[in-house]
Write a structure and sequence with these properties.
Chain A contains eleven helices and 13 strands. Chain A has 322 residues and is α/β, with parallel strands linked by helices. Chain B has helices at 2-30, 32-35, 66-102, 104-119, 122-133, 137-163, 167-175, 179-187, 192-215, 227-234, 243-269. The radius of gyration of chain B is 22 Å and the shape is elongated. Chain B has a single domain, classed as MetI-like (MetI-like fold). The chains are: A alpha/beta (322), B mainly alpha (275).
């Protein structure tokens, strides 16, 4: 395996909680690598820390501790000036294409901004590069003088992607890039992202709660729960042979077409626990708080490239109490 | 639907009416010296005369043409008003944007300082400053600008606090745009609507403040006429020559109303939440 493009080690992000409560650990000891040209799918339910992880990697959110290295350079300790220069290599595609474009800026100005900031092309060549970017994401370059409200959600997301690609990044965080779109448009945007990856050799951190979408795009998959990664492996390993009970729950939670079976499945589902991790407390547990007090989970490698963090591993053994 | 559409229609009407009133006001002020039939300081034989063909609004206590003084006096009053509000707006934008965007301790310090200014009654502060530094044009403008800065700064700060958390701001930051550029290009343009409305209201208020200070003798020094001092001079002859009082009074109300109408129209058209 080649050297990773992105290396995340023991990344933690804490948020202050209301008075009298311990701070919330939104991201807890998260570690993973992303190889050049590869996609890591990050799945988990709302509030599991997926987005915070993405923002902390991009240094849009300060990490409490841990290390983020892109192209071998440590980002967490970087000065503002160096960091802005590094942003040329890492970009962000946000979830909501209706709010992530400046409503009073034309598409041309939106796409020109990163080019001007990083002086990627000479000033006179900017219009040409803008047209090129529009073509790259499958849009007509003739519409660049329009405003975002004149476009559909899918078109806007293409513009957002074009903005991210303007400076030829190596790595793009896609935070739920299709969840605000209708299903048909979702497929088009996913196709576009895969096509761009193949053509430009991009690496993605693909954050999503839709397991089917992740399966389609990801080479490796990380499952997050309560701010921690509970399972990490190649897409096939995780989908075919889920080791963590939470992963199995997630896969089982994909809706079934038959309403009767769906109702039965929902009835089986456990009540929603408060899975927010807090400082100074053991990690949350998918099975509820009574187990959480007993011990912390350890990382078990169960196959090459496939690991799980669960105090009930291996199956049948007594809960891990080291 | 029709309920939602109605205010938008009235808003547009108000903006048009306000714009016409403003155009009339500006025309009078800019073209004043060419329109005014007499020099504002030229005296004639009859003092406190009623309206005649020569003097449409009559003459004042020393025989000066009221209409001419009204037109020329408007220049003084409106110049002070516009200059003061322009300074207050510039300061308000700077302080409000800095305070809201930077946040934290900077926000606390700026807002507490503005609270101190805000706590003073307008007239008390103006009288104190003018009494201490002298009733010059510059002092008057600066005082009024200081008095109205906190209001405008607050109107800028509020929406900045919310807009700075919007996705497109984060997107700009992730692209590598500098914080200053983000504040000016990605935040400021989206908070400008309520600021326009408040500026218009402040102009209306300031006209009253300026004329009131002049009425009290704290306005620009004579001989330049202005509406407030005209009112003060004419007050004792109100029963003899009512037009000498009614003239400036109507002018003050008209000018102030112009900006109130404009503000209300803009509020509807720009869809700014009512206060």
């Amino acid at each position: 395996m080649s050297a990773p493009l992105l290396r995340v080690r023991d990344l933690c992000v804490s948020f202050p909680a209301r008075r009298g409560r311990a701070p919330v650990r939104a991201v807890d000891q998260v570690s993973f690598d992303i190889a050049p040209g590869q996609t890591l799918g990050l799945v988990g339910e709302s509030g599991s820390g997926k987005t915070t992880t993405g923002r902390a990697i991009l240094q849009l959110q300060a990490a409490s501790s841990g290390s983020v290295q892109l192209l071998g350079r440590e980002l967490t300790a970087m000065s503002g000036r160096d960091l802005r220069a590094m942003r040329r290599h890492m970009q962000f595609v946000l979830q909501n294409p209706y709010s992530s474009l400046h409503p009073r800026m034309t598409v041309a100005n939106t796409l020109a901004e990163p080019l001007a900031v990083h002086r990627s092309v000479p000033r006179h060549a900017i219009p040409e590069r803008v047209a090129e970017l529009m073509t790259l994401v499958g849009m007509d370059p003739a519409v660049v003088n329009r405003y975002p409200h004149e476009f559909s959600g899918g078109q806007r997301q293409r513009i957002v992607i074009a903005r991210a690609l303007a400076v030829n990044p190596d790595f793009v965080v896609c935070d739920e890039p299709v969840s605000a779109l209708d299903v048909r448009t979702q497929a088009q945007i996913v196709d576009l992202l895969q096509h761009l990856q193949a053509r430009l050799g991009l690496s993605y951190l693909f954050i999503a709660h839709d397991l089917a979408v992740v399966r389609a795009v990801a080479h490796r998959v990380a499952v997050m729960y309560g701010g921690r990664i509970v399972e990490l492996g190649n897409a096939a390993q995780v989908y075919e042979n889920p080791a963590h009970p939470y992963t199995r729950n997630l896969l089982d939670a994909v809706p079934v077409v038959d309403p009767a079976r769906q109702r039965a499945l929902l009835a089986e589902a456990a009540a929603d626990p408060d899975f927010r991790g807090r400082e100074g407390e053991p990690g949350p547990c998918v099975f509820g708080t009574d187990h959480a007090a007993t011990a912390t989970a350890h990382w078990h490698d169960i196959a090459p490239g496939h690991g799980v963090s669960c105090r009930f591993w291996p199956p049948g053994a007594a809960p891990d109490s080291r | 639907m029709s309920e939602a559409a109605a205010p938008r229609g009235t808003g547009r009407l108000l903006v048009i009416v306000g714009a016409v009133m403003l155009a009339a006001l500006l025309a009078l002020v800019i073209l004043g010296p060419w329109i005014a039939p007499y020099s504002p300081s030229k005296t004639s034989a009859g003092s406190l005369a009623g309206p005649t063909a020569q003097h449409w609004l009559g003459t004042d206590s020393i025989g000066r043409d009221v209409l001419s003084r009204l037109i020329i006096g408007g220049r003084g009053t409106l110049l002070i008003t516009v200059a003061a509000v322009a300074i207050a707006l510039a300061a308000g934008l700077l302080l409000g944007l800095t305070s809201g965007y930077v946040g934290g301790r900077t926000d606390q310090v700026i807002m507490r300082l503005l609270d101190v200014v805000f706590a003073f009654p307008v007239f008390l502060l103006a009288i104190a400053v003018v009494a201490a530094l002298g009733p010059t044009l510059r002092n008057l403008i600066l005082t009024i600008a200081i008095v109205y800065t906190p209001t405008l700064a607050r109107v800028v700060r509020g929406p900045v606090l919310s807009v700075k958390r919007w996705d497109h701001v984060e997107a700009a930051r992730s692209v590598g745009v500098g914080e200053f550029t983000i504040a000016v290009r990605h935040v400021l343009p989206l908070v400008i609507s309520p600021v326009l409305v408040q500026t218009s209201l402040t102009l209306a208020n300031t006209i009253f403040t300026v004329t009131a200070l002049s009425f009290l003798g704290l306005g620009p020094p004579p001989p330049d006429p202005n509406w407030g001092s005209m009112l003060a001079d004419a007050r004792q002859f109100m029963e003899l020559a009512p037009l000498t009082v009614i003239g400036p009074a109507v002018a003050i109300v008209f000018a102030s109303l112009t900006f109130v109408v404009l503000a209300n129209g803009l509020r509807e058209v720009l869809d700014v939440a009512g206060r």
